[in-house]
Amino acid sequence: MTAFLAAIGYEQWILHVLLGLPLLAIPMILIMPVHRARWIALTVALIELVLGLGLWWAFDPANPAMQFVTDVPWIGAFGVGYRLGIDGLSVMMVLLSVITMPLVVWSSWRSVDTKQRGFYALLLALKTGMLGVFVAMDLFLFYVFWELLLIPMYFLIGSWGSSNRLYAATKFVIYTFVGSLLMLVAIVWMVMEVGRATGTYSFAYEHLLAHAYLLESSGPWLFVAFALAFAVKVPIFPFHTWLPDAHTEAPTAGSVDLAVILLKMGTYGFLRFAVPFFPGFALSESVGLVMAGLAVIGIVYAALVAMVQPDLKRLVAYSSVSHLGFVILGIWGSTVESVQGAIMVMISHGLSTGALFFIIGMLYERRHTRKISDFGGLARVAPLMATAFVITAFSSIGLPGLNGFVGEFLVLIGAFGRYPWLVAGATTVVVFSAAYLLWATQRVFFNRFTNPLNEGIGDLNMREIAVLAPLLLGMVWIGLYPGPILRRTEGAARMYIEMVEPYLSETPTVGGTMFRGGR
User: Fold this and answer.
1) How many structural domains are present in the chain?
2) Against a cut of 0.70, is the pTM above it?
3) Distance (Å, rounded) from C-alpha 133 to C-alpha 81?
4) What count of other Cβ atoms lies within 10 Å of the Cβ of residue 475?
5) To bridge 137 with a disulfide, which of 165, 205, 413, 433 should be the other Cys (CB 3.0-4.6 Å)?
6) Which residue in 431, 355, 434 sits closest to 392, CA to CA?
7) What's the CA gap between 203 and 206, in Å, rounded?
């Protein structure tokens, strides 16, 4: 396979095709008859899946540097270029995006019966924005893709969401846009400062990273500007309040895209930009304690809040805040193990939480309610759905043998040397997550069957099985055999640690002991 991909010049065109194909399909969707819109979207999604899977073989795990690099001048007068590339971090995010794209389109086959052309056109625009964030190696281009996502997601929530959709969509945009503006100011400031010192004004990621030492005096406020933008997107406690509303009110496709991809953009931003650009400030004792502390607060707080949610979708939304706290803890744990664990949590959360939202959407299509109290005993009439939910719940809890365990275990052992007491606090979420997910599973699927409205709910059909099967297989595969993914992310994790290692020596931990970071 690798030889075949090299023979067709795969690395020279694949990133451009993945970005451009959805945009080229949008006019076709808008002008074609309504009943063909979903077929065009699904066809594009499947083409992207087939082409994108080649990255698994074409990407060289032994090479930690950027691969598939493109550097073409765009707005030369301002140092802006069409610069793309991927490494072990971004390649997994791209693969996650192309795998979930056809599942999202197919899951909406029956649930979206109004304004279909607009819906599928927005989904494709959203996909281009998501992929662009992960492959952009020019900060101006990165910002363009970052902001591009706001428009389709706003309309997906605001037009096809539930009863309180406009409030949720507006809240999502305001939170994200304010943080993004601060990041834009920081980006422009960086380019100007580095340009004045070097004589070269450029938005190129590698150029700014190589000269980041010139920003030491302004590093604190620049890091804060980047960190706020990314903290809102993750979201980190206390910037998380937009997420439960957005998840709850969004259509299934929007909830899945939020869970699988959009939230990862924030954690990706920390790993790619915020910490590498300003490691002296970002990894200082005080900032490290704040970030790791907020991560653990979010892990525990969100799990406790999830336990009392009457809405099944809102419960899963709070679980996302809890799980992504492990990613932040892994980033500031600053070891190869913790960083690889953070990446693995990003992948695993996408699979398990995406599957949970798919199943909840299937329940909502049948009963038009998400209240846990409206269900009960569904395993009797929908055994396949119950089985899928149980496996996914165990995955989200972190049961050994499933994907959720791998990432969280690596984060905890990798971050323990640096933040032992915070890690000890984070481990309590194992109990809390089991409590809220198993309790919800019992109340929805295994309690007494008392509501006659659930009698005709029906089990999974072939389309729904096809949507869930890849995610369930991924949970089992990663849980039993994570080696292939860990090999592809190890180079990026080691390169990240080598970059920040000089700023980790002699760093006090919460417990008062000392830990010499890096590997």
Assistant:
1) 1
2) yes
3) 15
4) 24
5) 205
6) 355
7) 9
